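Predict structure. Chain length: 74.
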Amino acid sequence: MEKSNKVYVVNVKLLNGNWVKYRAVQGSAGVKRLVKYFDENFTGENKWLFCNVYEKESQQQVANYLNGKNPTRP
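Prediction complete.
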């Protein structure tokens, strides 16, 4: 993901089956900080599996990050 000032929506799938939605993540640096936050806070039963990143304006998916085996990171 390239550096930008766009606003993103991030949907996170948790191990327990729940979804968490962040509606106004500011820029690509904000997405990176959010993934770091997931690593620190979503552990155990609430471990995060993956997150999808969408541009808020166009609703187009711009990235997908995996956690665990063969992880991808911003």
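Summary: The chain has one domain: 7-67.
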